[in-house]
Specification:
The complex is a heterodimer of chains A (276) and B (436).
Chain A: H1 7-34, H2 39-42, H3 57-65, H4 68-99, H5 105-114, H6 124-133, H7 140-164, H8 168-176, H9 181-192, H10 194-210, H11 213-217, H12 226-231, H13 241-261, H14 263-270
Chain B: H1 4-19, E1 22-29, H2 32-40, H3 42-48, E2 50-57, H4 59-71, E3 79-82, H5 86-92, H6 100-104, H7 115-120, E4 122-123, E5 126-127, E6 130-142, H8 143-148, H9 159-169, E7 177-180, H10 190-200, H11 217-233, H12 243-251, E8 255-261, H13 264-268, E9 280-284, E10 297-303, H14 311-321, H15 324-334, H16 345-349, H17 351-356, H18 360-368, H19 393-408, H20 414-431
The chains are: A mainly alpha (276), B alpha/beta (436).
Chain lengths: 276, 436
Amino acid sequence: MARNVSTQSRIGFTIGAWLVALLIFAPILWTALTAFKTEAEAIASPPTFLPRTFTLDNFEAVQDRSDYIKHAINSIIVSVGSTLIGLAIAIPAAWSMAFAPSKRTKDILMWMLSTKMMPAVGVLIPIYLIFRDLRLLDTVHGLTVIMTLINLPIIVWMLYTYFKEIPVDILEAARMDGAELWNEIVYVLVPMAVPGIASTLLLNVILAWNEAFWTITLTSGRAGTLTAFISSFSSPQGLFLAKLSAASLLAIAPILLLGWFSQRQLVRGLTFGAVK
Amino acid sequence: MKLTPLFVGALTLALAGTASAQTITIATVNNGDMIRMQGLSDRFTEETGIELNWVVLEENTLRQNVTTDIATNGGQYDVMTIGTYEVPIWARQEWLVPLDALGDDPEYDVDDLLPPIRDGLSVDGTLYAAPFYGESSFIMYRTDLMESAGLEMPEAPTWDFIAEAARAMTDRDNDINGICLRGKAGWGENMAFLTAMSNSFGARWFDENWQPQFDQPEWKETLDFYISLMNDAGPSGASSNGFNENLTLFQQGKCGMWIDATVAASFVTNPDDSTVADQVGFALAPDNGLGKRANWLWAWSLAIPTGSQQHEAAAQFINWATSKAYLELVAAEEGWANVPPGTRTSLYENPEYQDAAPFAQMTLDSINAADPNNPTVDPVPYVGVQFVAIPEFQGIGTNVGQLFSAVLAGQMSVDDALAQAQAATLRDMTRAGYVK
């Protein structure tokens, strides 16, 4: 039964939601505004909200010094590639854990999650040596592999949670009708879990897009992604905030647009199974 | 599919990369002089046919990346930009290729390199890195505020004069702080300044047997002086101020004096960024009459890791980037004021450079006043003016820096901080095998 919500509390919730949204959005807005200021204005105290002198010089300087397109292409290949490979591995894995669990399934899930508990720098040297010996340093495919491995536990966990919401009876009905395992997953399970798979896909693209530690450590120019691109604009000596903001804005623009256009899928996926 | 052109583009780029004759990868730090070199490096490619692949990173990230690569013999980089801290440590580990060829090239004129800088980059007389730009530290001060305070800055002031001037220039009502000094914790942040300052007070990190010296009166005197001066005449929140924060304060006219890297001179006198560009004077870092000044010595230098497969091409690039001809190229393209400073004697003898950079002589004097091999009043077993060139120093220096920063923030007393610094440093040095 629908709950009666008074107009007053509805207005209160709306204002509260807007305030929280603005608070979360404020750093991005500030970055965007700073990108159009001069370096001197970017550090002015008291700070200016809107640029006094609107300038595109920072974007020009950023493009002059670095190759945005090359880094953006690397980011797209690594984030989309690692997510697709991750899904291809995680969908069967999550199916088995959700619908054919063994005594040790919970333990395996916990073990997978535990790999995320160690700080990345703890395995830096072994990974670096493996990459060196396999000649994967500074390669896009090497970076795609490491990103797949890093995000795989999250993908499996998310899909497992979504799959658990799907009644097993439907899959059994498909089996009764003679569907083989592959057909059961592709034609029955996947279509029902599309919102969950879509939001997993989007979230992992975003995670891989923003990953900085491995992309900066394992690349040296050719395979650098946009996080490496941004980090090259931070400087210990001299003014750099406006240029750093311009680089950051360019780097987050594609993922911001992706998030904007797919927000319906994202919200639907994230709340999948929350309401029955 | 929309992504197809992007994948084709990436493949084309990858193939184009492998098709070129020879490419070397250069890791460098993001500062003005390095970025200028990157911009001018097309000339090198035109002259030699060697393509350059640039990796420009922020200092801490650069240090982490190149250290990981060189320690694992990764071979990702052919030329690394490293500082005077890394060179002696890495050279002793045989991680760097000796640059003997530079000495054999009469056009390069290795004897023209400034002696303190060259010494800092050599081990047992062999040069392991070529200096791209060098810096020391000195006092930058507001001539107008000094005049209003009725004082005149000597060329080589004492700490007592600096303290008197800082207190006289402080005007809290108008948000003017007599002095701005580093307070942010870190071995390359507050400890660079405080280690150099402590040298002028007769303090040292270790005695000749590697025993930490924080329990000695010289360190207490240094820290008491620094804390009292900053409390009376420093900006609020100074415990989180590093180079960039103080630069901002000075450029906005909120500091009477600032003791920091000589490279800052060009920033504070640049009218595009600084509101006090016309009112800046320079003086040598202060002393206490003990024969050592509170200035440091640093050089960003280019070196070849032994893991590189292209030693010859890398050496060719280093020769080009640190040559006299490169200085002339920068002067012709962007003016003498933009030439990387602090590496060559001939630059400071050049009248055109002296005209373009009013702080040139003071920078040279400051560099010459630093001796990395004899940095302190009493003898020490280590090399380095504002650091101790041992691998453990990054950890130890940052640890002590956090304690001293906490004192500045009012969270701890000087005595407690020194006692903790002594205990922690002794523990780390014993574990590392220096103290038997």
